């Protein structure tokens, strides 16, 4: 594979997904850090050279740039056991990855960012007005996962796939966003199964 | 292919994406309608039999159910020219589809739903408090597309792909959400190119 550079903010679960995917498949990856709290992904240079959307992560593959965490995971893991080859299972894996970006991340990751990084005292009124709905939305996402994982070891096809990696990233730190994982024992058992997989690396690694 | 049933609310752009993909590849699809304004996707039967997440669209393939519009499009179009075979291009197509669900749909589709379906007078305070941010977020998404489409005919790989279908669905009706497409001439020209493709069907068809 060409030289790979991950443009990232390392505490971001979206960036961690890509590092975790790379670790599970044994793919070395160079890391370049930007502090989003200091606006380092909104500079004219970042917007022109890395991502016009002003966001991390971006996976750089040679001289090409791939934004969107789940797309970068898909690129890395193509052809490995992390992407099921069967047509329905592959689409079902993507189903959980779209669920993650639509129902899970905007609730759980955003509350974690607001409460653990920005700080509750620094939120504006529009943000404060959304806390209740995001808490309810995040709990609904965790409940859905918990029910799906009853009697299943992994989200899709009976083995670890990108669906698990995508949803593991922010679920395992959901308590930093005010969520109580003890309410979701199926989710907790699944988190432990992901962590026991060969190649697993922690978020802080 | 097995018998396909689309569980849908036909004015939804997310449902239209799937019909448009099926039309472009000439795949017949049965349609089953639910009125989301009457809560028909939150009934115990729908939650148990179709989608525990209480949302449409869901693509039923034989006795299996696939939620998430973009995952359903991916299932349908696997192996067709709508999904680029080259590794980077396929991931880049998914990049735009994740962008659609994260940066585009929650702004543009939600404002369209609130203003054109629920009605401005029926919004609650939490919704009203988000209108300004959603307008700005939607305009940022349209601007990003407009700049990317400068000098390009389609979003990825020089030809129509699921990236175009996913983003066409709510972009072409963005004015119902209060967006002014005349500000984005590159987007307008691209909408016309999608509409000129063989097999195209309108949202109301």
Helix and strand arrangement:
Two copies of one chain form a homodimer.
Chain A: E1 4-8, H1 13-25, E2 30-33, H2 44-49, E3 58-61, E4 64-67, H3 69-77, H4 87-118, H5 125-128, H6 131-148, H7 162-171, H8 185-195
Parallel strand pairs in A: 1-2
Antiparallel strand pairs in A: 1-3, 3-4
Structure, explained:
- The structure is a homodimer of 205-residue chains.
- The first copy, chain A, is of the alpha+beta class and 205 residues long.
- Chain A folds into 2 domains: 4-77, 3-Layer(aba) Sandwich (Glutaredoxin); 87-195, Glutathione S-transferase Yfyf (Class Pi), Chain A, domain 2 (Up-down Bundle), CATH 1.20.1050.
- Helix content of chain A is 50%, strand content 8%.
- Chain A contains 8 helices and 4 strands, in the order βαβαββαααααα.
- Chain A has helices at 13-25, 44-49, 69-77, 87-118, 125-128, 131-148, 162-171, 185-195, and strands at residues 4-8, 30-33, 58-61, 64-67.
- The first copy, chain A, has a 4-stranded mixed sheet, covered by helices on one side.
- In chain A, helix 1 links the parallel strand 1 and strand 2.
- The longest helix of chain A has 32 residues, at 87-118.
- The first copy, chain A, is globular, with a radius of gyration of 17 Å.
- The two termini of chain A are 23 Å apart.
- The mean pLDDT of chain A is 96.
- The A-B interface holds A 52-53, 61, 64, 66-72, 74-75, 78, 87-88, 90-92, 94-95, 97-99, 101-103, 105-106, 125-126, 129-130, 132-133, 144, 147-148 and B 52-53, 61, 64, 66-72, 74-75, 78, 87-88, 90-92, 94-95, 97-99, 101-103, 105-106, 125-126, 129-130, 132-133, 144, 147-148.
